[in-house]
């Protein structure tokens, strides 16, 4: 049975190259989410995501480094500092 893509781009992967994202996850997230990941993590051929990403953690983080670098800063800052510290606090 072949997967079918819905209007949000879910149901299929949009990778055109290598991906470190599990296949089932690729198929379940919207295309817009796939295209925001850096090409070195999940290659969709989107030229806007070719540049290297950075982590915005300023302290300890329980989030894997590759994921920190792949997600937008807004998402990193939405996590509690106890999980992914972006507080810029001086200890």
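^ Assign residues to that structure.
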């Amino acid at each position: 049975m072949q997967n079918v893509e819905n209007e949000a781009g879910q149901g299929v992967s949009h990778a055109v190259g290598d991906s470190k994202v599990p296949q089932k996850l690729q198929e379940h997230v919207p295309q817009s989410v796939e295209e925001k990941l850096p090409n070195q993590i999940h290659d969709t051929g989107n030229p806007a995501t070719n540049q290297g990403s950075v982590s915005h953690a300023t302290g300890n983080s329980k989030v894997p480094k590759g994921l920190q670098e792949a997600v937008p800063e807004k998402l990193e800052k939405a996590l509690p500092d106890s999980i992914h510290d972006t507080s810029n606090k001086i200890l």
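The radius of gyration is 15 Å.
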